[in-house]
């Protein structure tokens, strides 16, 4: 139980300066490694750091900071705790169904399509998108940019190997998302894992990209960024929306996570809502 | 100036009736925001705010990411996302791992609200069959907030209030009726 992520109890002395220590750690990470967590939502960042403290057996945030500053491997370990690799294929199936019905017919009118999956984590969203586009006959003329700040996650995404146990759950999602074939057509089962067909990623470029510090790298017609923006504060959300707006071609599409909206954003007037429950927006 | 700025409430098994009991006692002009995490199967969660709004005849809303907390508003955490309070008194959602098999987790709401409101927070933990919330309630107390636990003898399932009482001595152990009266009284004394 002491390893529970909810365990925020520290010695009272350690708790006294915890907010200052966390700010200093975040600043140290930024200055040393150029990873910018300064505008992430504070409550979640604090939990992640306290969780990392216990996992990395550091007595205080300051001692974690010293390790991170001097040992790049310690930073990479901390990064795994700071980024949240909770993902699944065809998560929120009704969103993918709406994508298929409302967006794909319009994408088909383009001679070629570029899609940006921002914050692709371990790749579940990428393979979902690729499968959907293949079934709609679009994959061969589409380039998918799949970006994330975590190189370990990107490596996993490139492999496209997921446990059979999770793939069984994804199969239901796939069917509810309007899948037209048998989900098992897309992977080979081996040793309890599902290895996804490498042809799905033939047109996928995996790249290190930060919504907090990097700029736009390509014009795109569809941006999917799901369950990433909830970890940002309002200012950083607006930076990300700005990048998406700049990247999208005229009348391009933006797809967000089920709890993410443009409602509280400075960019709300620069997009129109295509399907509200499924969080698909269109550049005005 | 008032001492209390917000109320956070956690409940699990038996929670719907318990919450209706307490919230039904609060005056319609109750000015403190009330933030609730209730453990429910994901599919039952989605209608929670509507059900409570109808039953209580007052504005109730499913908490949205980055929404500023409004006085007098009742917020429920939605399904499959944790709910937190940020230092600027806005809400945030996250999908970190489950706590005591639960997402939303009471501990996450309580811990983050304790950080944001300090002594201005009232924490209430009710009936439930797991230990989520006990640690969060202890955080509220440590930060100077007021802690209230439902009397385990009255609770539909006593595990959750008992776990909280074991971890720290709450300021009040009360029946649902007593909790409703106390909240109404505390709110009146804050203005």
Give an overview of the whole structure.
The complex is a heterodimer of chains A (284) and B (191). In chain A, the strands form two sheets. In chain A, strands 6-2-1-7-8-10-9 form a seven-stranded mixed β-sheet. Chain A is α/β, with parallel strands linked by helices. Helices cover 42% and strands 19% of the residues of chain A. Chain A has ten helices and ten strands. The longest helix of chain A has 16 residues, at 18-33. Chain B is an alpha/beta fold and 191 residues long. Helix content of chain B is 34%, strand content 20%. Chain B has seven helices and nine strands, in the order βαβααββββαβαβαβα. In chain B, strand 5 (82-85) and strand 6 form a beta hairpin. The longest helix of chain B has 13 residues, at 176-188. Chain B is globular. The termini of chain B are close together. In chain B, 53% of the residues are buried. The interface between A and B is medium-sized, with 30 and 32 residues. Chain B: Keywords: Chemotaxis, Hydrolase. Chain B: It is an enzyme of class 3 (hydrolase). Chain B: It catalyses: [protein]-L-glutamate 5-O-methyl ester + H2O = L-glutamyl-[protein] + methanol + H(+).
Secondary structure elements and their pairing?
The complex is a heterodimer of chains A (284) and B (191).
Chain A: H1 12-16, H2 18-33, H3 42-55, H4 61-70, H5 72-82, H6 93-107, E1 113-118, H7 124-135, E2 142-148, H8 151-159, E3 161-163, H9 164-176, E4 187-190, E5 193-196, E6 204-208, E7 220-225, H10 234-247, E8 248-256, E9 271-275, E10 280-283
Parallel strand pairs in A: 1-2, 1-7, 2-6, 7-8
Antiparallel strand pairs in A: 3-5, 4-5, 8-10, 9-10
Chain B: E1 6-11, H1 15-23, E2 34-38, H2 42-45, H3 48-56, E3 60-62, E4 74-76, E5 82-85, E6 91-94, H4 106-117, E7 121-125, H5 134-142, E8 146-150, H6 159-167, E9 172-174, H7 176-188
Parallel strand pairs in B: 1-2, 1-7, 2-4, 3-4, 7-8, 8-9
Antiparallel strand pairs in B: 5-6
Helix pairs in contact in B: 1-7, 4-5, 5-6
């Amino acid at each position: 139980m002491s390893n529970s992520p909810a365990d925020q109890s520290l010695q009272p002395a350690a708790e006294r300066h915890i907010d200052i220590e966390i700010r200093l750690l975040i600043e140290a990470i930024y200055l040393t490694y150029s990873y910018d967590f300064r505008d992430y939502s504070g409550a979640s960042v604090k939990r992640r750091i306290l969780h990392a403290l216990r996992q990395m057996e550091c007595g205080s945030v300051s001692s974690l900071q010293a390790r991170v500053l001097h040992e790049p491997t310690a930073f990479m370990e901390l990064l795994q705790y700071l980024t949240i690799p909770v993902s699944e294929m065809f998560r929120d199936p009704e969103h993918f169904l709406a994508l298929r019905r409302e967006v794909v017919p319009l994408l088909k009118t383009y001679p070629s399509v570029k899609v940006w999956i921002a914050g692709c984590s371990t790749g579940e969203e990428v393979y979902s998108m690729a499968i959907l586009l293949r079934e709609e006959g679009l994959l061969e003329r589409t380039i998918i940019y799949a970006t994330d700040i975590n190189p370990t996650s990107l490596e996993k995404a490139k492999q496209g190997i997921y446990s059979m146990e999770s793939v069984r759950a994804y199969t239901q999602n796939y069917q509810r998302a309007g899948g037209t074939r048998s989900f098992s057509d897309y992977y080979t089962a081996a040793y309890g894992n599902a290895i996804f067909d490498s042809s799905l990623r033939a047109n996928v470029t995996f790249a290190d990209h930060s919504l907090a510090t990097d700029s736009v790298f390509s014009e795109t017609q569809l941006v999917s960024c799901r369950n990433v923006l909830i970890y940002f504060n309002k200012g950083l959300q607006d930076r990300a929306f700005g990048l998406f707006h700049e990247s999208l071609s005229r009348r391009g599409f933006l797809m967000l996570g089920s709890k993410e909206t443009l409602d509280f954003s400075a960019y709300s007037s620069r997009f129109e809502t295509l399907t509200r429950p499924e969080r698909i927006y269109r550049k005005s | 100036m008032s001492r209390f700025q917000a109320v956070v409430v956690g409940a699990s098994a038996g929670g719907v009736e318990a919450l209706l009991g307490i919230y039904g006692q609060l005056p319609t002009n109750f000015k403190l925001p009330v933030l609730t995490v209730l453990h429910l199967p994901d599919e039952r969660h989605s209608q929670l705010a509507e059900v409570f709004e109808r039953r209580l005849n007052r504005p109730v809303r499913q908490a949205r990411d980055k929404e500023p907390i409004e006085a007098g508003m009742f917020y429920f955490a939605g399904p499959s996302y944790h709910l937190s309070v940020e230092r600027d008194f806005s809400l945030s959602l996250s999908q970190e791992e489950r706590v005591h098999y639960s997402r939303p987790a009471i501990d996450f709401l309580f811990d983050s609200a304790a950080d944001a409101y300090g002594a201005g927070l009232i924490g209430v933990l009710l009936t439930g069959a797991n230990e989520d919330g006990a640690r969060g309630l202890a955080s509220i107390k440590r930060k100077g907030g007021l802690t209230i636990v439902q009397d385990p003898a009255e609770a539909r399932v006593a595990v959750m209030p008992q776990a909280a009482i074991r971890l720290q001595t709450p300021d009040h152990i009360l029946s649902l009726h007593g909790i409703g009266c106390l909240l109404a009284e505390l709110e009146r004394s804050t203005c």
